[in-house]
Amino acid sequence: MSEFWSPVVHALKPYVPGEQPKLTNLIKLNTNENPYGPSPRVLAALQQQVADTLRLYPDPTGMALKQAVAHYHGLTPAHVFVGNGSDEVLAHTFQALLKHEQPLLFPDITYSFYPVYCGLYGVTAQTIPLREDFSIAVEDYARPNGGIIFPNPNAPTGKLLALEAVEKLLQHHHKSVVVVDEAYIDFGGASAIPLVKKYNNLLVIQTLSKSRSLAGLRVGFAVGHPDLIEGLERVKDSFNSYPLDRFALAGAVAAIEDEAYFQSTCARIIATRDVMSRGLQDLGFEVIPSAANFVFARHPQRDAVAIAQFLRERSIIVRHFKLPRIDQHLRITVGTDAETQALLKALKALP
Ligand SMILES: *Cc1c(COP(=O)(O)O)cnc(C)c1O
After folding, report:
1. Phi, psi (degrees; rounded to nearest 5) at 224
2. Is the CB of 209 under 6 A from ligand 1?
3. CA 350–ligand 1 middle distance (angstroms)
4. What confidence category does residue 23 fall into, taking pLDDT thresholds of 50, 70 and 90?
5. Which of 156, 152, 145, 218 is nearest to 187 (CA)?
6. How remote is the CA of residue 301 from the centroid of ligand 1, in Å?
7. How close is the Cα of 218 to the center of ligand 1, in Å?
8. Using a 6 Å cutoff on CB, does residue 33 contact ligand 1?
9. CA-closest residue to ligand 1 atom 5
């Protein structure tokens, strides 16, 4: 604490990211990283950027990446915004599109960065409780609002909302921006991006951190009506002209262009997720059906913190949230087959 802090800093409750331990021999199932490395084409593209051209600023518009994303989804670069991780894209979205007179709505159990951005930008929010089975019921959002945001699949539950329900929300709230944070959509859900041409109030945000295996490169993007994108650009150009460096732009374009690698790694993770879910159920865990690269599970007789501690002593780290309704759950990232077998073997030895 310091007398020199701005008033807003005193009131901030910053996001606490999952641990990135220094130890290298851990089975790291706590931050939903991809267990497979990025495409070899990404690594080659990055190596090309180790060059004299680093003395020059990168393209401030990130046009090559906008074009790659637009081409992939059958849209134009004017429909695409790019940023330094989807967390930065989300931050600009809160400031540019979600701060209004009426409260922003989001689920009570969701990505814990949303309330942090509300605190940073002074956005009033109202949380809408998930139903008993942790599902989002779109009719619960039928109230005055200045915007709606949720991850699909939701985090940390992994539960998918059907595209028809997303569309209902867009129709019912045509005067509000509806933001769908699709950080995990490539692991089994249907993206809302095809609805962008039909609904000018839809903004879809995706990241290259999970399904494209580039958490270390920091690249995310948003897709929406050009008027929404222009709002984001105005905030971005009032903050940082060059959020994506030469490496990030080159690596991200190569990742989006390597469709075969992307499809095969996603398919492997989905297959392993199903093995992991069944394995956990066989051990007595209740597992929420997951459409993501993690599962959210609880054991009816064993304390979640005690399980996490037991695993940690065996060099396996998973994520626990000390929050209402979910403090007996664990979020476990889908690793390789070998890591998953090690996890199940360790859990089998629970006292
Ligand atoms: C991981 C995650 C993000 C952030 O992704 P980055 O692009 O790495 O910043 C955003 N939203 C949700 C729901 C996530 O789980």
Report:
1. -175, -175
2. yes
3. 32
4. confident
5. 152
6. 32
7. 10
8. no
9. 86
Supply 93's token pair: 């979205």
CATH assignment of 41-258, given 3.30.70.20, 3.40.50.300, 3.40.640.10, 3.10.450.10?
3.40.640.10
Q: Distance, CA 207 to ligand 1 centroid (Å)?
A: 6
The whole model's pTM is what?
Answer: 0.97
Q: Is 151 in the pocket of ligand 1 (CB under 6 A)?
A: yes
CATH pick for 7-37+260-348 out of 3.30.565.10, 3.30.70.260, 1.10.10.200, 3.90.1150.10: 3.90.1150.10
* β-pair type (178-181, 202-207): parallel
Of all protein residues, the one whose alpha carbon is nearest to atom 12 of ligand 1 is 183
Rg of the chain, C-alpha, whole Å: 20
**Separation of CA 297 from chain center:** 19
The answer, yes or no, to whether any atom of ligand 1 lies below 6 A from the CB of 111, is yes
Q: How far is the CA of 104 from the centre of ligand 1 (A)?
A: 19
Q: Are 349 and 41 in contact (CB under 8 A)?
A: no
Please report, for the chain, the start and end positions of each structural domain, with discontinuous segments joined by +.
Answer: 7-37+260-348, 41-258
Residue type, 129: P
Instruction: Judge if the beta carbon of residue 75 lies within 6 A of ligand 1.
Output: no
Count of alpha carbons within 13 Å of 290, Cβ hemisphere only? 30
**CB of 183 shorter than 6 A to ligand 1:** yes
At residue 16, the pLDDT reads 86
CA of 87 to the centre of ligand 1 (A): 6
Q: Which residues face 331 on adjacent strands?
A: 296, 319
Q: How many residues does the chain have?
A: 351
In this prediction, residue 18 has a pLDDT band, given cuts at 50, 70 and 90, of: confident
Dist. CA 219–CA 250, nearest whole Å: 11
Identify the three-state secondary structure at position 142.
coil
